[in-house]
Design a protein that fits this description.
single chain; Quinone Oxidoreductase, Chain A, domain 1; 6-stranded parallel sheet; 29% helix
Length: 329
């Protein structure tokens, strides 16, 4: 049986090409669970993989797509039966193992979690890895005792997928959110998601002081580099910064001063290899915290054939919020 998939290849001269291909099911990689995919998404990492802008993919050919939701069609794994509705996020899928930008996937059953009963496949991918990562960041702040009454929470890269969901989740929990964005024309969108105020990312993106005026009770940073350093430098005594992204860069031009003089915690948030129990906790919270109308504010739906062109726009910062891919359209 054949199916459609987005396939990324590299030629002998190391040129990266991406194309929509028809693939036989026998070509699927090893795994103990086969899934008919309903929806996948297009994330920043997928954009890098599809365009070849960064060496995300470890071997070729590769089907990109770091997440998906669908229905189990074959299983030799004890946890999963034919007909089960499942979600996958991370685990190197789309990088070292064929991913979700296809109509079928074969993966390890250890990588799957059950689709929450209150969500359908579309809603799960409207949330996707971005929403799941955002919830992990919020959980990191809460684990460190950051409460709504402690003061403002900064979200950097707020127009992106993780940032948008971070704003919405924090607002739903009663936090006062300040959204940092490079697109001030999107302030109304961020306010609608729940931001109490917006600020220009330029205030944070240049080299700053080792210690700045204390402002933030907590931070969710999707950007890295100088932005993360400045966020740490302006976090209140005992506050927490949850770092999950590197849109500005993977460097951290900071000093130890916020950490040893103000007791600031820098909490790294990894969504790729998070243990199953943490994943399930995050998805349970997402299923009960976010309202359906939030999905519509955040999501753009495209077809599999649109994914290549949209990947380029995503890397240029021309895409707001989330991109859900209907792989069967």
């Amino acid at each position: 049986m054949s199916f459609n998939a987005l396939l990324v290849n590299r030629s002998e001269d190391k040129k990266i090409t991406s194309s929509l291909e028809t693939i036989d099911e026998s070509q699927l990689p090893d795994g103990d669970v086969t899934v008919d995919i309903d929806y996948s998404t297009l994330n920043y990492k997928d954009g890098l993989a599809i365009t070849g802008a960064a060496p995300v993919i470890r071997h070729y050919p590769m089907v990109p797509g770091i997440d998906f939701a669908g229905t189990v069609t074959e299983s030799s794994h004890a946890n999963w039966q034919v007909g089960d509705k499942v979600i996958l996020n991370g685990w190197g899928v789309g990088e070292v193992h064929w991913g979700g930008l296809a109509q079928k996937a074969r993966v390890s059953g250890d990588w799957l979690i059950a689709l929450p009963a209150s969500l359908d496949s579309y809603q799960a991918m409207a949330i996707g890895t971005a929403g799941y990562t955002a919830m992990l960041c919020v959980m990191a702040l809460q684990d460190q005792g950051v409460k709504p009454e402690d003061g403002e929470i900064l979200v950097t890269g707020a127009n992106g997928g993780v940032g948008s969901f971070s704003v919405a989740i924090l607002a739903a929990y009663g936090y006062e959110v300040v959204a940092s964005t490079g697109r001030p024309e999107e302030s109304a969108y961020l306010t609608e998601l729940g931001a109490a105020a917006c600020m220009d990312r330029a205030e944070l993106s240049e080299p700053g002081k080792p210690l700045a005026k204390e402002r933030w009770a907590g931070v969710i940073d999707c950007v890295g580099s100088h932005t993360l350093a400045n966020a740490c430098a302006s976090t209140k005594y005992g506050g927490t910064v949850a770092a999950c992204g590197l849109a500005q860069g993977f460097d951290l031009p900071a000093t130890v001063m916020p950490f040893i003089l103000r007791g600031v915690t820098l909490a790294g948030v990894d969504s790729v290899n998070a243990p199953v129990a943490k994943r399930e906790a995050a998805w349970d919270k997402l299923a009960t915290t976010l309202k359906a109308e939030t999905f519509e504010k955040v999501v753009e739906k495209i077809t599999l054939s649109d994914a290549i062109a949209t990947a380029g726009k995503l890397l240029k910062g021309e895409v707001r919020g989330r991109v859900v891919v209907d792989v069967n359209a």
